[in-house]
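During the reporting period the student researcher (J.K.) took over the structure-prediction task from the postdoctoral fellow and processed the backlog of single-chain submissions. One of the processed entries is reproduced below for the supervisory committee.
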Amino acid sequence: MKKHFFLILFAFLFAPHFAAAQKILIPMDKHQTDHLKAYGVAYWCLAHGLTVEWLLNYRGGSFLVDALPALQTELAIRGVSFDDISSAESSELLASIAQNDNNMATMKLEKAPKIVVYVPPTNLPWDDAVTLVLTYAEIPYDKLWDEEVLRGDLAKYDWLHVHHEDFTGQYGKFFSAFRNAPWYIRQVRSAEQLAERLGFSKVSEQKKAVARAIRDYVAQGGFMFAMCSAPDSYDIALSAEGIDIVPAEFDGDPTTPNAQSQIDFKKTFAFENFTINMNPFQYSKSDIDINPQMTGSATGEENDYFTLFEFSAKYDPVPTMLTQCHTSVIKNFYGQTTSFRKSCVKSSIVIMGEKKGSEEVKYIHGNYGRGQFCFYGGHDPEDYQHHVGEPPTDLNLHKNSPGYRLILNNVLFPAAQKKKQKT
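J.K. obtained the following C-alpha cells:
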C-alpha cells in the first residue's frame, strides 16, 4: 500500500501538466531576480532526472525545462523568476534558435555532475568564492584534501575546484607579512606534519605530487576549475618537477642552482615563458600574475573592468557556455593572483575574458588529454580587495553577480551533452 502511495505521489509531482508538454523558461537576462539560485534550480532538475535545455546566448543563457508542479514549487521557494510557455511556443523558440542567421544554440544538460572541492581542513582566515556560491545556489559538493587526492579519490568526480592553494609549497608567500601570525604558524605546522605522514621529505614535494595527481585526473577526462593563486602556482609546480624552487625560509634547504633554466614549460597546462620568483620576501611566485597595484597601473575600483569575448554558439559551444552572462563587461577584482600576463599564456589556450588595452587576461580555458580546465584570476568577484581576516561575502546581497555567474557556468559545463566542435 505504501509503495503504491509513493508511486502516485511521484507521478503527481513529476508528470507534465494535463499531459501537455508545456515548458518552463528560466530567463537569465536582467529580468532574472536571482541568477545564482537559477543555476541551483538547473542542477536540481538534473539531479531529479530531468533534461535541461541551455539556450546559449538567448536572454543571457536561459534554461528550458518541462513544466512540472514540483519544479514550479522549487522555483517559487528559491525566488527564481520563470515563465510558463506552451508546447507550441517552446517549439517555435527552439526552431528560431536553430536558425543559422543568429548567434544562438541549444545545449542539452543531461546529468548532474559530481562536484568536489579541494580545500584544506585547517581553518584559514579567508573564504573561497566557489564554496560560497555552491552553498548559496544549493548545489551539493564534497570536500577532499591531499591524502584523498593521492589515493585516487578524484576518479569519483566529474568536476574539481582547487581552493586558493599554493602548489609550490610556499604557503602563499605570506612569509614576509604573516610569518609570526598564529594562523600562519598553524598552517605551516599542519602542512609539515601531513607531508611527513604521507611519506614526503618536505611540503613542496608533496604539493607537486598532488599537482601531478590532478594532472592525471584531468588527462583522464576530468574538469578542473581554479581561481586566484591556484592557477599559476599549479603550473609552476608542474614545471618544476625534479628541481627545488623553494627558498630555505620555507623548507630549510637551498634552491637548485640555475633553477630557472631547468623549468619545463611542456609540462604546464596554460602558461609558458614565465620567470619564477624565488625571493621569499616578495609576494609573487612568478611574473605570470599581473597585480595592477604592484605594477603601478591601478585605475581605481570605479574604472576597473574586464570584458568577456563573444564566441560562436553554433561552432564554439564550449567557450560560449563558459561565458554565458547578462552583461559582457564585469567588475574586476583582486586576489593573490589577480590577472594572467598575456605573453605567458600558451597559444593553444582560449582567452575568454581580458582587460582591454592591457596585458591582463582574466579568464581562460584549455584542454589537457581527454579533460578540460578553466582558470579565473582574482579572489572574490564581489569583493574588490579581499584582505586576510575579512568576513565572507554575503551573496544574498549579490544575487545577480556577473562575476559569480562565470563560476556557475563551469559547474554546469560537465552536464552538457558532448558534441564534436565544428572548428
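The committee noted the following: Residues 115-415 form a domain with the Rossmann fold fold (CATH 3.40.50.880).
J.K. will present the remaining backlog at the next meeting.
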